[in-house]
Amino acid sequence: MKTMKDKNRKTIKLGDHVEVLAPIATDIHQYGFSGSVKGFSKSSVWVEEQDVANTWYIAPERLEIQK
After folding, report:
1. From CA 53, how far away is CA 47, in angstroms rounded?
2. Mean pLDDT value across the chain
3. Domain coordinates of the chain in residue numbers?
4. Which residues pair with 64 in a beta bridge?
5. pLDDT for 25-42, tens place per residue?
6. pTM beyond 0.90
7. Burial class (CB in 10 A: 0-12, 13-18, 19+), 46
8. Which 8-state DSSP code applies to residue 5?
9. 59 CB-contact burial (10 Å; exposed 0-12 / middle 13-18 / buried 19+)
């Protein structure tokens, strides 16, 4: 699997806490949110929302790793 990078070109790892950016026209989510990386697909990152436990496949460049 290829290495995935966030919007700042930082490597995304399983378990990272990320901020999902506010949606653009091509996104399936309807709002920005914080969550945890639960896995990876061929071209997306599987993110679980922090507050409501919904999961979304998000393009890596739409994420920002949080400290």
Report:
1. 9
2. 92
3. 17-65
4. 19
5. 888 888 899 999 999 999
6. no
7. middle
8. B
9. middle
Question: Any idea what DSSP says for residue 57?
Answer: E
CA distance 20 to 36: 10
What is the DSSP annotation of the chain?
Answer: ----B-TTSPBP-TT-EEEEPPP-TT-S-SS-EEEEEEEE-SS-EEEEETTT--EEEE-GGGEEE--
pLDDT at 1: 61
- How would you classify the pairing of strands 33-40 and 45-49? antiparallel
Contact yes or no for 55/36 (Cβ under 8 A): no
Six-digit token string for 37? 């990386």
Closest CA to 34 of 11, 12, 66: 66
Q: What is the pLDDT of residues 55-64, one digit of tens each?
A: 999 999 999 9
